[in-house]
Write a structure and sequence with these properties.
heterodimer, A: 102 residues, mainly alpha, 4 helices, B: 285 residues, Cytochrome Bc1 Complex, Chain D, domain 2, two-stranded antiparallel ribbon, 9 helices, 47% helix
């Protein structure tokens, strides 16, 4: 009986730990990641138009206590930052292939 | 003075001659590469628009669409930029606080549009006309002007107007100039922004086609006629204001006017228009 209680307790602790590992990043962390990506894209001249304003909106939502809304907007900003950076890195290597050949 | 032995003098002479020749070859090589690009650029548009004369490309979109051209010709009877040119003349001639005028910086009464943009070896960057106007102001103790519209566009319009008819002749004859040219070329052809579009996409591939109600202008001749009075703006504005609008339209964050990026782009685009004549200012939709 004691072994059963112990086994169930260990399993509950493990499940709680896994659940913690699988939790979505907090909005604050997402905003920081989005800002870092935005800066990386900006450093190579490929920042997108809306990314900075999305990050600003996310910060405003977070300051207003709207964690879920802040996270949603921050995800969008992070996605833009990542796409912009990928676009920039690709174009730096491949822009000459876009010059029309006559 | 100690005499250098004849064989050493001769060796020194050979080395100096070789260095001189290397510099000359380098300059010619860069210009030849740019000339090859220019020829390819012209050939592209000649193939796209076989009925358009090369000289007409200085008129931008009006070179490739007859209806627009007729409307523009009528507008040119009372051009909307005329008042800006008058204002620009007054500003050009108005003394700074120190008593000097823009005439102290620009030769020929300001009829120097054809000298810009150029690569300044000492500064290590491309210098545009608007940048030179602001450099003149700062050199004379004045604050620089905002670079998209307003007084700088009016002064540039006046200088462009009195420079009309001069040929576009951008020179790319050093490593630094070629690097700036290539950065401008890269910006022109690379896709940017959320819509993944490039200058070349609209103004080469889709030149002559409609983007909503507007016809996309050919890139050949793009910079000859700036600054422009744009109906959409309701005022005269600079080339870099237009660049910023285009970047914005593609979903990219625009660079600042007179940034290194836009100066290099202007350098490249103007080089591609070598052989045309400067005919600014102009009016556009």
């Amino acid at each position: 009986m004691k072994r059963k209680i112990l086994s169930v307790s260990v399993m509950l602790v493990l499940l709680a730990g896994v659940g913690e590992l699988r939790a979505e990043p907090a909005a604050k962390e997402l905003i920081e990641q989005a800002e870092a990506k935005r800066k990386e894209a900006a450093a190579i001249g490929f920042e997108w138009r809306e990314t900075a304003s999305l990050i600003k909106s996310a910060r405003t939502a977070l300051e207003g206590g709207q964690e879920a809304e802040a996270a949603k907007i921050a995800w969008q900003a992070l996605d833009e930052g990542e796409q912009a950076l990928a676009q920039g890195r690709y174009m730096q290597q491949n822009w000459e292939t876009l010059v029309p050949k006559l | 003075m100690k005499k250098i032995p004849l064989n050493r003098s001769f060796a020194l002479l050979v080395v100096l001659a070789a260095m001189f020749a290397a510099v000359r070859v380098e300059a010619a090589d860069y210009q030849a590469r740019v000339q090859a690009d220019i020829q390819a650029f012209r050939n592209y548009f000649a193939a796209q628009f076989p009925d358009v004369k090369f000289a007409d490309y200085a008129d931008g979109v009006y070179a490739i669409d007859e209806d627009s051209r007729q409307q523009w010709k009528e507008m040119e009877e009372f051009p909307p930029y005329a008042l800006s040119v008058e204002d620009g003349k007054a500003l050009f001639e108005k003394p700074f606080a120190n008593g000097k005028t823009y005439g102290s910086c620009f030769a020929n009464g300001g009829a120097v549009r054809q000298n810009y943009p150029y690569y300044d070896e000492k500064k290590g960057k491309v210098v545009t006309l608007e940048m030179a106007i602001n450099d003149c102001r700062v050199a004379n103790g004045e604050k620089p002007l905002a670079c998209k519209a307003g007084d700088i566009a009016k002064i540039s319009a006046y200088m462009a107007f009195i420079s009309r008819g001069n040929p576009v002749d951008v020179k790319v004859q050093s490593e630094g100039a070629y690097k700036a040219y290539m950065k401008g070329k890269e910006l022109f052809y690379a896709k940017h922004g959320k819509l993944n579009m490039s200058c070349a996409g609209c103004h080469m591939q889709y030149a002559g086609r409609r983007l909503r109600a507007e016809i996309l202008s050919p890139a050949l001749g793009h910079t000859t006629h700036f600054p422009v009075y744009r109906s959409k703006w309701g005022e005269i504005g600079t080339l870099h204001k237009r660049y910023g609008g285009c970047s914005n339209d593609t979903g990219a964050k625009s660079f600042a006017p007179q940034s290194e990026e836009y100066c290099n782009l202007e350098f490249f685009e103007t080089a591609m228009s070598n052989g045309l004549i400067f005919n600014g200012p102009a009016s556009r939709k």
